[in-house]
Structure formats: structure tokens, C-alpha cells
Amino acid sequence: MVVKVGSNVLAAERLGLDAAVMAGLVGEISRLVEGGREVVLVTSGAILAGRVLLGMEERPRLLPEKQACAAVGQPELIGRYRELFGWYGKLVSQVLLTAEDLRERRRYLNARNTLRALLDRKVIPIVNENDTVSVEEIKFGDNDMLSSLVASLVEADMLVVLSDVEGFYTADPRSDSEARLLGHVESIGADERARAGASAGTHGLGGMASKLEAAARLLKAGIPTVVAPGKRPGSLTAVLDGADVGTLFHSRTAERLSRRKLWLAYVAHPKGSLVLDEGACRALREKGKSLLPSGVREVGGRFEPGDAVVCSDPSGQEVARGLVNYSSEEVSRIKGCHSSAIEKILGYKDYDEIIHRDNLALR
């Protein structure tokens, strides 16, 4: 399982890391490991810890200041965890990732193999975004997204997001006294996203909206997500005991998206774009077909065979992402044509499809 804990959970009232919360979390995870579970901990808190050591009262806004705080705070954060887990005889490792580490398929597989090797040796991986070197172009955005990627990376049975809220409500409980906590959510659509809003916590980037997006991604992978109160003692154990705590996001009917297609849909960095006609969109969505040249209307960007591209409908709505068999220059020449005409136009034909269905993931 993957356990994610955010900065707002780890933050003490007077700034800094909450020693009691961290000790309780480490104790629960250690008991789970002793019981035979494999646990990966995705943790925020480096910038929070760095702020205290640098004497900063407010969260930094400029990227260099955030990176400086992370550089100072990350050793403090991992040192606290190492000491606490050491009380239980547990060995931990530090794994710092950027989005770029996972966008390239080879590096993604390397990260998976490293985490697998650590778990096989009974080491608890402690994962955080590498804020010291991350810039806007390569940031995950927040550790909710990172935790969902790690959950798919290690093929987790569950993601537990420990938050500063009780779970997912019918409305914002801070402004609506009649808001009701939902115990179970099977699908995430426009209504659920509207309820989540876009607010983030005092000490971190992620709000309920980012937790909802993380859960939505894992729904497609068949991995359940629980959002539960992180400051409540015993919350993690209660989730695993099946107690009525937090919100479970899990679909009993969703088709499990393969790990490779999950990477393709949400992690791979697109190098270009294709606009499809309505017939091609229906073929992809309803019939699970490959994308043929005849269904392509427009080509955007520059890409080579094997690169990822975004496929959109005529209105601009994203339909899928996939790995192309032909370059942007080649697709521009054969778009709108029947597959039988590829060889005549290009002088050769390696594939009938622009994107084979095995290399295509619906969004």
C-alpha cells in the first residue's frame, strides 16, 4: 500500500513538524510492516521544515526560496523519520523524484525496479518530490498526484491519503453547515470536481481537488483510494480494519487500466497533437479501435515515431493519448487517407495505423 501524508497534517500549531503526529504515523506503519504489509510512504513537509530552520514565518512564494527551504528541510524531514522508524527496528530509504523521472519510460521502469528492490529487502521507501531541483515545467504539482503515480508504479492494492479533512463531502463543510461526509464514491465526474473546489491548505499546495484527481486516476487502474483524517490517532489502522472513517473511492465496475496505459494516459510527456474527426473518436471510445490515417484532420507539433501525442475531438476535447508509428511530417502527408494509400504517398508503409490500440489510452 501507499500512504501519503501532507504538510497540513504534519504541521504543528506553532509552525514546524508535529512530533506527535509523526510518531503516531510511524508507529502505525511499523505495525503494518510487522504484520506483513509492504508500505511506501509519500510525504510532504520538506519546505515546512526548512522554513523553521531558516526562520521564515510565512510559506515562500518565489521558486528559489521554496527550493532553498526544501534543500534545508529535506535532511531534517528524513532524519526525523529515520529516527522514529529506528525505534521500531525499521530501515528507511529516501527516494526523491521529479516528474521528468517518470515521463520517460526507461526512467519510469528504473524507478519501479528500485522501489521493488527496497520493498523486497523490507526497507520502507520514503518518497517526496525533489523540490530542490524541480521547476514548474517538471513539477508534479503536489504530492497527491505523486502518490497516485507511485501507487500505479508499485501496483499497490490501495492508496491512503491522510489529510487535514475528514474526507470528501457533499459540499465544503467550512462554508456549508449541511455538508455531509460521503463514505463511498464510485465515480468522479463534473459534479464531484465542482464540489471539491480548488482550495489548498495553509502549508501545502494540494486541496481536495488534487486528491480527487489522484483518486480518479487510480479508479482507472482499479486501485482504491481512501481520503482519511491524518491528525486523528489510529486513522490509518482504522481504514484497514474497515472502520467507518474517511471516504473510499473505488469502482466495482471500472475496467482496470494496465500500468503501461496508465503511464501513457497521465505521465508520458506529449510531443505533439492530433485532431480527429467524429468517426475516429467514436471508433476509439466505443469500439476500442486503432487510430487510422483516415480519422486524422490536423497535426500539431513535431514528433517522431514512438513519441506520445494528444488526440482531441474537433471541439478540442482530449480523447486519448498514444504512441505514434509515424513522424509529424509523415502524418501530415497521410492524414485523411485510407491505409492502403500510405505506401503510394510515402513510398513505404511500416504500419496501417497511426496509433495501434495497444499503444493508446483513453482519457
Provide a compact summary of the structure:
This protein has 363 residues and is α/β, with parallel strands linked by helices. The chain is built from 14 helices and 15 strands.
Which key phrases capture this entry?
363 residues, single chain, eight-stranded mixed β-sheet, Carbamate kinase, 2 domains, alpha/beta, Archaeosine Trna-guanine Transglycosylase, Chain: A, domain 4, elongated, five-stranded mixed β-sheet
Describe this structure in words.
This protein has two domains: 259 residues, Acetylglutamate kinase-like (Carbamate kinase); 93 residues, Archaeosine Trna-guanine Transglycosylase, Chain: A, domain 4 (Roll). The protein is built from 14 helices and 15 strands. It is elongated. By secondary structure, the protein is of the alpha/beta class. The strands form three sheets. An eight-stranded mixed beta sheet has the order 3-4-2-1-5-9-10-8, with helices on both faces. Strands 12-11-13-14-15 form a five-stranded mixed beta sheet, sandwiched between helices. The chain has a two-stranded antiparallel sheet with strand order 6-7. 39% of the residues lie in helices and 18% in strands. Helix 8 runs antiparallel to helix 9.
